[in-house]
């Protein structure tokens, strides 16, 4: 009898811990969905002029409207689009009417296409400021000589092209650029796996319950 009580207590404690972890992940899911909704609202907000001194945290996703000339050089950043395949993001210099030099993510180009010449003259850009965090321990080093980059390292790209460490990701260009499709900022790339984690914890709790019941049954079947 004492062994059955010990097993039952141990099982109940384990189930309680696993269920509490699942509930915690559901709470985190609600929090994350609220954050994503705020980001989406900020992305779609009315555009403003380019800040004098943009801040990587306070101005992340800030919608901006800026005009300038696009430089001839373009850095190619490898990107994969779901349902489309591989392409290159084109990162160029945008020299504003006021003489500032910032980075411009013009959009994506199919990998098989040659680099197009940028639009001539002044271009009006509607986009969002962003400082992507795309590099991790598995990201290859950029092939600068071959002009194949594997992450939008804003500081590194800015040093390479001689610009401010500021990246404007275009939503639309006027005039539009033939052959280059804008790939604007969205919240899709922000991970939100809390529901999967919650389901995992609840399933583990169910397995723990099954194991506890089975063990209690085995103990009960043994002769005294």
From TrEMBL:
Q: Where in the cell is it found?
A: Cell membrane; Membrane
Q: Where are the transmembrane segments?
A: 195-217
- Pfam families xrefs: SURF1
InterPro entries, per this entry?
Answer: Surf1/Shy1 (IPR002994), Surf1/Surf4 (IPR045214)
Keyword Acetylation listed: no
Q: What GO terms fall under cellular component here?
A: plasma membrane
Where mainly found? Answer: membrane
Q: So which domain of life are we looking at?
A: Bacteria
Q: Which CDD domains match?
A: SURF1
**Which keywords does this chain's UniProt record carry?**
Cell membrane, Membrane, Transmembrane, Transmembrane helix
Membrane topology annotation = Multi-pass membrane protein
Family, according to the entry, reads as follows: Belongs to the SURF1 family.
What PANTHER family would the database entry show?
SURFEIT LOCUS PROTEIN, SURFEIT LOCUS PROTEIN 1
Q: What is the protein name stated in its UniProt record?
A: SURF1-like protein
């Amino acid at each position: 009898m004492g062994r059955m009580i010990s097993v039952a207590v141990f099982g109940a404690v384990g189930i309680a811990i696993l269920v509490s972890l699942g509930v915690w992940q559901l709470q985190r899911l609600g929090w994350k969905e609220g954050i994503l909704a705020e980001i989406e609202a900020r992305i779609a907000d009315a555009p403003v002029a380019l800040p004098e001194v943009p801040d990587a945290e306070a101005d992340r996703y800030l919608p901006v409207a800026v005009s300038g000339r696009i430089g001839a050089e373009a850095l190619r950043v490898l990107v994969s689009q779901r349902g489309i395949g591989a392409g290159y993001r084109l990162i160029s210099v945008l020299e504003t009417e006021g003489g500032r030099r910032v980075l411009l993510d013009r959009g994506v180009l199919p990998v098989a296409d040659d680099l197009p010449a940028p639009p001539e003259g002044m271009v009006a850009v509607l986009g969002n400021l962003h400082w992507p965090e795309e590099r991790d321990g598995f990201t290859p080093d950029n092939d600068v000589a071959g002009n194949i980059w594997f992450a939008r390292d804003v500081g590194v790209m800015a040093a390479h092209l001689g610009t401010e460490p500021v990246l404007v990701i275009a939503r639309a260009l006027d005039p539009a650029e033939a052959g280059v499709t804008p790939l604007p900022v969205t919240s899709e790339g922000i991970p939100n796996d809390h529901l999967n984690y919650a389901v995992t914890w609840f399933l583990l709790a169910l397995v723990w319950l099954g194991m506890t019941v089975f063990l209690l049954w085995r103990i009960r079947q043994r002769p005294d």
